[in-house]
Backbone:
């Protein structure tokens, strides 16, 4: 997949499918095996030699051998039912020696909501802000008439171009070992779900201010002491007579 003006990136993976509907996808050191009969999906880590067994919910079918779809890209049936999309039969051709049948789906460009107009600036001329041109999204898929699997898928749009090309196709039934766990691999459980974040503790309420102390009652005024009574003058001594 490559955005306009960027360097294309490539992702290699291998897919196998049995006549009973089992599908295996290998990418890097990881393999995913689905079995619609048992309703179990196996995630195999070849580096750690471990595997995880995941039950698939009822009604969920095994992934088909198709490239990951682009966001908002409808399926062929949905596109045919929508009057806003055009489906074109491209007929039968040969792609790298494989007979394929192609279809092309064209989706009209989506009109994004208009942003609010900025406030006018004094002295600057007004006018609408130019919007980038919208490009319709076109999906082209070529499916093998014998293997019922996509050989070439190309999706173009304003995001760039995404292309999935199936190479080195080997017809025939894969060996049963392709859908079995390699010997010596140990089963591990699913990683535990992350614990929910702890609720923040409630802040402590502020302490109530202490009540102001009552002022002390003023003491009763003391009565002034009574003045001391004046002392009586001493009586004069009688005169003495000498004879």
Residues:
């Amino acid at each position: 997949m490559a955005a306009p003006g960027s360097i294309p990136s490539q992702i290699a993976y291998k897919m196998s499918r049995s006549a009973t509907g089992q599908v295996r996808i290998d990418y890097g050191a990881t393999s995913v095996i689905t079995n619609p009969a048992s309703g179990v999906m196996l995630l195999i880590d070849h580096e750690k030699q471990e595997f995880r067994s995941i039950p698939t919910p009822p009604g969920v079918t095994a992934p088909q051998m198709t490239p990951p779809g682009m966001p908002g890209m409808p399926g062929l049936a949905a596109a045919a039912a929508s009057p806003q999309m055009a489906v074109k039969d491209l007929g039968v051709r040969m792609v790298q020696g494989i007979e394929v049948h192609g279809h092309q789906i064209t989706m009209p460009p989506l009109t994004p909501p208009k942003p609010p107009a900025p406030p006018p600036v004094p002295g600057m001329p007004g006018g609408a802000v130019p919007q980038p041109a919208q490009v319709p999204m076109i999906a082209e898929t070529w499916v093998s008439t014998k293997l019922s699997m996509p050989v070439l898928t190309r999706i173009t749009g304003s995001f760039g171009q995404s292309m999935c090309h199936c190479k080195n196709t080997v017809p025939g039934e894969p060996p049963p070992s392709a859908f079995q766990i390699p010997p010596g691999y140990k089963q591990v459980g699913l990683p535990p779900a992350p614990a929910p974040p702890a609720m923040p503790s409630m802040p402590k309420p502020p302490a109530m201010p202490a009540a102001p102390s009552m002022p002390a009652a003023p003491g009763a005024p003391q009565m002034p002491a009574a003045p001391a009574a004046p002392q009586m003058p001493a009586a004069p001594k009688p005169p003495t007579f000498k004879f």
Observations:
- The first strand starts at residue 14 and ends at 17.
- Confidence is low (pLDDT under 50) at residues 61-83.
